[in-house]
Structures are given as C-alpha cells and as structure tokens.
Amino acid sequence: MHILFIGYGKTSQRVAKQLFEQGHQITTISRSPKTYEFATHLIQDVHQLDLTHVPAIDWVYVLLSPSQSTIEAYQQTYVDSVVPIAKVLKNHPVKKVVVVSSTRVYGENAGERVDDDSIMQPSDEQGRLLLKMEQLYQQAFPKQCIIIRPTGIYGTSVARMIKLAETTQSYPQIHWSNRIHIDDLARFLAQLIHVEHPEKSYIVSNNQPIPLHETIQWFQRQLNLPELVLESEEVSGKRIYAKRMVETRFELEHKDCFGDYLNMLENN
What we know:
The protein contains nine helices and 15 strands. It is an alpha/beta fold. The protein has a seven-stranded parallel beta sheet, sandwiched between helices. A four-stranded mixed beta sheet has the order 6-15-10-13. Strand 1 (about 1-5), helix 1 (about 10-20) and strand 2 (about 25-30) form a beta-alpha-beta unit. Helix 2 runs parallel beside helix 4. The longest helix has 16 residues, at about 125-140.
C-alpha cells in the first residue's frame, strides 16, 4: 500500500519505519526538511496541501502537533487544517484515515474511571477543539476515519520529570496520571493496518494509572532528593483504560514505566 503521513514527528517516524519494513510505500509531509531513505518527504503547509503529483494514496495517518499549547494554536493546527486535508484526499482511493487526537477530550477530573465507552465532555477549550477536529474528520470520512486517543506519551526524555523532582517540595492532592510509551503507541498505530474490522476510535494507554506525586517521589528517591509532602487526600485527574486496544489482542512491550524511567536515567 501507499501510506501518507501528514505530520512527521517522533511518533510518525517510528510508525513509518515499521510499515516500510513490511513492504509499504511511504510518503511524508511536514513543515521542515527530514532525511529518511525509506520515505518520500514533502515540505508543505497542511493548510495548503498539494497532492496532485503524488501516486494514489491508500492509507493516511494524521499526527499534527501545535508549536504552542494556546487556544489559537490548537484552532489553527487541529481544526483549521481538516477542510484542506479532506479536500485533497477526496481525489485518492483512501481506505482509512487514522487521526491522532488525545484523551484531553474526556473532561473528568475527580479520579473517575474513563474508557472507550465514556462520553466525551471536554473541560477546557483545547479539549473542545480536539473534539471538534475529531467530529470534522468523522463527517468528512464517515467510513474511513479511525480516531486514536493516546494518554501521556513518554519514552524519549526524562528531563521534565527530573525538573519536577528537583522543584516539587509538596503536592496539593492525589492527581491520577496516565501514560503510554512512544514505541507501544507507534506499534499499535502500525498494527491497525492488519485489524480487519477496526472500531471508530481507540484509547491507547498502558492501563496503569498512577498518582503523579508517587511518580515524582520515585524520581526523588532515584536522585537522592528530599521527598515531597502530599498536602491532602483530595483526588483529581482520571484513571484511563484502553479497553478496545486490549480487545485487538495488542501486546504492550512497556508495561512498567518505572523500569523505562530507570533505563533513561541511567543513560541520561
């Protein structure tokens, strides 16, 4: 198959390499130059795509990320790009359009359980814009669209967690956090090509919610830093479970985030 990646960051690069090794033809699009011998790379603005001279596209992955986390950046990157992308893809025999969104579309924030059957009720404007993007793609590609909602992606750096460990002396409440290793996310995205009857959407997570303060404390212990003090038993965040992902019989390779963190600390 000829597979197109719109947005070509760290996750896309991992997926593309796996699919190339399976014998697929890869074309990639991003705003900046990339050099990978297995892909034809086009430097284009997603708001002004031109696929006129691109061979017939069978499968599409959309993995965009804004340069900032502002409402304006979310609107421009996620929402305003849908119509121009859909317009050019209509001229190709596309079987599936896989769109990577986020679990930010779920607004729960009191420790509730969230899974693929939970109702999406975003609690902030960025979440609402992500949900709007999902709905626009589903309207444009009602039979082809698959939405992917990863939890927090980890596996490339521990710099943020080290900084939190160094600067956090107390934490206000028990805040549930969720994560997925970037390599597991990439493997799941690549595996979707072989799923005969895919669902309309999938949460992708390691199914091990952890209170954030416990993760910070773990880093503090590894770094021989003073451990933070938990100020209250109040609960925030959500506990996310990727039920449909499990039903595809996908096997996680990174079930233990602390083992991964330890390896990254040793190589830091």
